[in-house]
Amino acid sequence: MLTQFMSYIGSNLTPGSANNQLWALIYVFIIFTGVSVAVMAMNWLERKALAHFQIRLGPMRVGPHGLLQPIADAIKLMLKEDIIPAEADQFVFWIAPMIGLLAAFAVYTVIPFGPSQAVSDMNIGILFMLGVSSLGVLGIVVAGWASNSHYPLIGALRSSAQMVSYEVAMGLAVVSAILMTSLNAKGTGTLSMIGIVQAQQDQAIWFIFKFFPLGLIAFIIFAIAMIAETNRAPFDMAEAESELTAGYHTEYSGLRWSLFMLAEYAAMIAVSSIAVTLWLGGWMRPFPNFLQAPAWDLTFSLFPALTFFGLAAIAVIGVVRMPAHSFFRIQRIGLAGFAAVLGFIALLLLVIAVGGRSADANLAARFNQGIGYVYWFVLKVAVFMYLFIWYRATWPRYRFDQLMRIGWKVMLPISLSVLIVTAIVGVLVK
Amino acid sequence: MSVHSNDSMNEMSNLDLETPEKPYLDSNELIINMGPQHPATHGVLRVILKLDGEKVLGTECVIGYLHRGVEKIAENRTYAMFNPYVDRMDYVAAVSNGLGYCEAVEKLMNVEAPPRAKYIRVILTELNRIASHQLWLGTHALDIGAMTPLFYTFRDREEILKIFEKYCGARLTTHAFRIGGCQYETYAGFEKDVKNFLTHVAPKIDEYEALLTTNRIWLERTKNVGVISGADCIALGVTGPVLRASGVKWDLRKAQPYAAYSEFDFEIPVGTNGDTYDRYLVRMAEMRQSLRIIEQAVNGIPEGPIMGKVPKVIKPPVGEIYHSIEAPKGELGYFIVSDGSTQPYRIRVRPPSFVNLQALDMMVRGLLVADVIAVIGTIDIVLGEVDR
User: Do the Cβ atoms of B3 and A150 come within 8 Å?
Assistant: First the structure.
């Protein structure tokens, strides 16, 4: 086991490609935990950010600034009575959230957090991702059908119509990005997610800027389609609260309902990761080609530490600003502890960044590199997550037929023409 | 799946809900029960929808879940005792309800409120109109999926409710007016508060508009949705912003001036298409016009008594009277029959929400489920007033 452990440390492959099951398992575990924690954090962030958009405070009671609210919610949902409606199709009702969850999590097997920081480097990665992520809608459709109730049924119908209208435009946008990967000496493109990022590295440009504005348009098409794909506002017809009470999950409660929520947020992170991988250079730090002096390398490698120092500072400010009343004592201690943990992580990152700056491949340098990859990737995904919240706070909901019209009559022609023009430009450039 | 027939639903409905017995999985119309507990039916309205897929083939409103028999209660109360009850009808525009009732009784007794009382009435009623429209805007936008305006409008509505609270101690069911005038003189700083409100809320209305008026999704969701012509409005008795958005320039404040409205300079905003978007624009413009009226009233408020010459025991002469005012939702009328005693023989209220709700079916036929929600919101109903 130790040899297996050490042999992987020295390799530059993903555990899947290196055929290293142990590491693949560890990665799966890390990703599963990481995504679950990210979903919880996202839950808290969404409620806080949305509240501040709307001149409210959001959760404030459970833990300092409501930091423990997601945990409290999770416990509450787990303890709730498990209800399956008498008229429902029991087995299908039971399996529907699992389908959604599995589809959302399976996408992560191909998402590269770094050149070797992925579960597997599948050579049909993007195809796998498109296939699996569209399975998520099956969970919704099946849930709506199995509930044997009107509102969920309509929600499920809307969801399937939505998926049909958006998958096509989304797929074409993805294809135009894949076309760009073939602009190399060999003239062969790649479907591998890692390969796509490496193509951006080799061509020294993020695909969002490639053949301006073609890459940008394709990216925007994908960005719109991915909101529709994840059933988020303004395309949240499937669960439209004011119309269908809760849409497809009207009859769901407790843990099953929370699985749907988990799946929704996991899917949001997954599609954002895909957008980042395809158009925003994946794990690459900003301006790797303009600012490539070692001094710049060092500067950018300090960013993770600085981020955590910033978070710690925010927590410290929170401690200082907390009212000096005995009621807040435990909260103050808790938040101070949280600040200390964040500060410790920041310190650790700082040590790694400084210790790993030498070019020779010692362990710290490898760690430093890996942290840099994951940091920039997560940061880019976080921007998308914020956009999701922003959209939700700003826009009204589209109507079901309008959504279909936009999908078929606007997005599909645009993405198709972008694809054709990209192909022509690509041939001309060669 | 048993997507059909709930027996009680069939009994209550006069739509053609009788569908022949079909085996498992038929593909006929779907009958959906929306409400009385539904996030977007504004209280306890129940709408039975007959759908073909998502297309609405017909609707039937089931009302009465909030029926309290207000009109019957009136027969066992003196005229003054009934006054607070009217606030409980349209509880988001309680001041307007009180104004209509007080003026109707005054007309029956042939007394008139003194000018100062009339000005106070106008200021409070117009403030209430803004509050009502703000509540409408927030909930209507929420129904269409825009969450944020709700919180902005409630924040600003709070300023109005604070003025009410300072004036008469209550925020919603204010009981602000008495038969013959007002019971309370304005508090010290009333005029300053109102003027502060005027300068505070005008930019806020722009803020709501910035979120919605030119928002592409808002336009798509509201334009050409729930269209109703002026002629249809008149045929159905629809009044208020819904009527004006259809191009009919009819506002009781101008047509039959009551209180002190004849002394103020304001315009009647009118729409052209009679769709949800025009109704939105008309109400937004009305809020601005209300600000104009309040400004003129608060600047020109005369000194003097606030109570007219009303006997201690109110005993109107035998007779009947119909008096109506322009409430935020439309024509609010009171028909009072007096038998000469201290209690009304019969009071009949003409509530704008109840009458306007009739137009729902005409407006939503052929549209989608999502539009039903938008149209219920745009008619601006309050179930307390519909059911009474």
Answer: yes
Kindly state the helix (H) or strand (E) to which residue B277 belongs, with its residue range: helix B276-299
Give yes or no: residues A195 and A325 share one domain.
no
Answer whether B55 touches A (CB < 8 Å). no
| ipTM value for the complex | 0.82
Domain that holds residue A66: 31-79
Tokens 């060669």 identify what position?
A430
Residue A385 maps to a domain: no
CB A221 within 8 A of CB A414: yes
Which of A242, A245, A404 would best serve as a mutation to test chain B binding (most B beta carbons within 10 A)? A242
**DSSP SS3 for B46:** strand
Q: Which of B40, B151, B215 is the closest to A243 by Cβ?
A: B40
Q: Answer for the pair A349, A371: CB distance below 8 angstroms, yes or no.
A: yes
Look-up: residue for tokens 């909901």? A397
What does the pLDDT look like over A63-108, one tens digit per residue?
A: 888 888 899 988 998 898 888 888 888 888 888 888 888 888 888 8
A12 belongs to a structural domain: no
Q: How confident is the model at residue B322 (pLDDT cuts 50, 70, 90)?
A: very high
Query: Is B370 part of the contact surface with chain A (CB cutoff 8 Å)?
Result: yes
Which of A46, A79, A112 represents a domain boundary (last residue)?
A: A79
Q: How far apart are CA A377 and CA A383, in angstroms?
A: 10
In B, minimum Cα distance to A395 occurs at: B146
Please indicate whether residue A326 or residue B18 has the higher confidence score (pLDDT).
A326
List all residues 6 or more positions away from A412 whose beta carbon is below 8 Å from its beta carbon. Answer: A168, A169, A172
Same-domain pairing of A67 and A194: no
Whether residue B22 is predicted with pLDDT greater than 60 in this model: the reply is no
